[in-house]
Design goal:
The protein is α+β, with helices and mostly antiparallel strands and 386 residues long. It is 33% helix and 27% strand. The strands form four sheets. Strands 1, 2, 3, 5, 6, 10, 11, 12 and 13 form a nine-stranded mixed sheet that branches. The protein has a four-stranded antiparallel sheet with strand order 14-15-16-17, covered by helices on one side. Strands 4-7 form a two-stranded antiparallel ribbon. Helix 7 (325-343) packs antiparallel against helix 8, helix 7 runs parallel beside helix 9 and helix 8 packs antiparallel against helix 9. The mean pLDDT is 91.
Amino acid sequence: MLNKRLLVKNLLAYNDENSFYDKKLQLNLDSREDKAKFLKHVCALSNSNPQNNSYIVIGVEDESNKIVGVDFFDDSKIQNLVNAYFENPPKVQYENIAFPRLPRYKVVGLVTINPLQKVTSIKKGIWKYPKNSIFLRQGSNSKPVQKVALKNTNTAIVEAIEKNARSNIKLTLDGVFDFINDHKKELDPNYIVFKDQFVLCWAGKKKEINGKVLYSRVDIALVNEQIRLFYSALDDVEIEFNQQSFIITEYLHLNVHKDISFKGDLKGIYPLEKTIINFKENGTYDIATDLLFKPPVYDPIVLKHIFNSNNVILNKLTKNIPLTKIDKVDLQQLPTTYLICSLNGFNDAKTKLEMAKPYLKALNDKSAYIKLKEAIRVLRKVKYGE
């Protein structure tokens, strides 16, 4: 079992990117250009490493090699993107790796591309890359080529790096203590052992809503591998477990505005997604997700009024016009009300969210910015779940 934090450190020890690993400051998959660039690197690394894993490390400055981290990224559909655009798609996995010196809401992203021993190519054009494009790593660059003769040149190096990243009892125990010490007592940190092999730590602030026990500020990590499995700054989460599974059901708050009426059992809280982590006897585990969310339907006249009010506030932010006291109150809910509008057919609402991002990020009070990131995450999940 690999300690992924140690694996990242070993990869970065090579400093320069090469034919079996790449590093990025951040990963964006919002536009066709962003997706195309990501697919290019995956294609090149897969073709350059037919018999060993290859990696992309996210959240690292290119020249200084400094680990700065990125936001927790829970896009379980990244494999769907690879499958949709590739002929002979490799298996690709994205994992969030916790680092002690980073803020708790930051991680290092690790993309693992498993060996395929087949030539991977783009089967349908995307951005400026036409159908049947093939890429290969040449040093630290992903270059287009006409054809590929699969060669095995990195296996010994990668095996040595992975061997030096094997987990052990000390690393696991240190990880448990670090997790417990990093989470305040009010978050009630716990650990659970599955199948005598896997140590899972979790923490959250307990609350009860209409008889249902939920947790907020939830953090869940698989300590053996130093993988953060779940992180939420805002949403309420139901946690269940048995001898072989850990089950997370995430709920979403949408009852935030006095003019929006709500129907439901949990006071404006809607089930968003269920994640089931299944641990197996053979030392492996799998993660299955099921999107539960059914967007609530609201009065379009009321939503039009709220949408226009949000636009007025956003216009003031862009033009540096001072906000009134009422504006400041509504600003805190602007990301969530834009989210509700987007879910109810206001096509410009997501664009407005993106426009608001730099202005909310610049505020001293980051709560609205955190809500904005959560809103964009929900929209991405709903889009992939359609």
